[in-house]
Amino acid sequence: MKPKIDIFMFIDAMGWEVIKGRGFLEDMLAYRRPAGMQFGYSSTAIPTILTGTPPIVHKHLSFYYYAPDKSPFKAFHLLGLGLLPEKIAAKWRLRHVLSKCVAKAYGFTGYFEMYAMSFKKIHYFDYIEKTDIFVPGGLSPTPNLADRLSDANVPYHISNWRLSEQENIDALLRDIEKEDISFAFLYTAAMDGLLHMVTKNGAKIPVKLDWYSSHIRKIADTAAKHYREISISVFSDHGMTSKSGVEDIMGLVEKLGFRFGKDYAAVYDSTMSRFWFLNDRAREELGDALTKMPRSRVLSEAEKIRYRINFADNMYGEAILLMDPGVQIEPCDMGLKALPGMHGFAPEHEDSYAAFLSTGKPSSEPNWVGDYFKIMTDSFASRKENPQ
Questions:
Q1: Class of domain 2-56+137-241+348-381
Q2: Distance between CA atoms of 220 and 33, rounded to whole angstroms?
Q3: What is the DSSP string of 297-345?
Q4: Residue 232 to residues 52, 170, 361: CA-CA distances in angstroms?
Q5: What are the pLDDT tens digits along the chain (388 aa)?
Q6: Model's pTM, two decimal places?
Q7: Fewest CB within 10 A of the end CB: N or C in the chain?
Q8: Which of 94, 107, 105, 185 is nearest to 147 (CA)?
Q9: Residue 350 region, left (φ>0) first, then alpha (ψ -120 to 50), else beta?
Q10: Is domain 244-338 in CATH 3.30.1360.180, yes or no?
Q11: CA-to-CA distance for 117 and 121, rounded, in angstroms?
Q12: In Å, how far from its chain's centre is CA 332?
């Protein structure tokens, strides 16, 4: 029997408002508190959790950013894919197959999907998550969790994000039974997809939480047979906000008459639009028009600093238009239709808060999702591995 194992379980989108009042594992995970969301989506939250640093350090915010000179999608323009009828170009199956082909051609090992980005403009953009962010060097030059574990010679288990939740749970159980590890990071993502479709009040949410509860108890019971001391923490990256309405921000901008790729470039995410101004006229006139868009606001420089997305080179947009909580952009580059639930609104909104639960008080308070990193690394920083 080994001395100790620290198990950290990530449940995507299991926000504080999702579990509040539902009694989720209250008898086991006595330490419970909300944690501030990192502005953005999982594409920035997970790198923040894995490094303990904000976007301005690890460089991940949203997937797409304006970089026509190094875009991996130039061939799309040269091949004339932008001329395809929209009914064909918008088909998810075609886009998914093309995404796999692009990933293979360029050797991308990270999560890669083109979503609904128009073939007419995709060649203006680069994609940030080209490498597997969970493995050593995956967020280089910023050290990630796997780097720290490797440097400390800690035998560890980190889930394969490509596998299903059940496959990842089973893989962890096998490693626990072999007593080969003293640290585990279990990745589960299905809650996010479920919340997108049924929202936090959906009848399927308590059922899913019960499913997690039973598997977490099984993990704890299995670990107790192989380790004298067990620590289990369960946390999330954000919550989920129910749809209250939609706005066609893309259509409103296009009606202003500015030329995409000549006057400006933009990425329309589900809850925010990001703009690069390519000349002074667009900066002044389009910039002013953005302040008048419905049910939204342009982030101030002070907000960018507070959210730690104040990139000196405006990597993710010179102007960021954030929608009011619950209001989604439809259509957008992530999907042509809004979903019943969405995240990525203001971190201060009650539905945005993540949750951190644990069997014991952590080494420091998880006020922000980036604080999880210190809690995880503290768990093995002073420990010397003992084979007995």
A1: alpha beta
A2: 21
A3: EEPPHHHHHHHT---TT-TT-SEEEEEPTTEEESSBTTBSS--SEE--S
A4: 19, 17, 11
A5: 999 999 999 999 999 999 999 999 999 999 999 999 999 999 999 999 999 999 999 999 999 999 999 999 998 888 788 778 877 878 888 888 989 999 999 999 999 999 999 999 999 999 999 999 999 999 999 999 999 999 999 999 999 999 999 999 999 999 999 999 999 999 999 999 999 999 999 999 999 999 999 999 999 999 999 999 999 999 999 999 999 999 999 999 999 999 999 999 999 999 999 999 999 999 999 999 999 999 999 999 999 999 999 999 999 999 999 999 999 999 999 999 999 999 999 999 999 999 999 999 999 999 999 999 999 999 999 665 444 3
A6: 0.95
A7: C
A8: 185
A9: alpha
A10: yes
A11: 8
A12: 18
Q: Which residue, 296, 344, 307, 97, is CA-closest to 196?
A: 344
Whole-number Å distance between alpha carbons of 238 and 309:
17
Structure tokens, 257: 């008459």
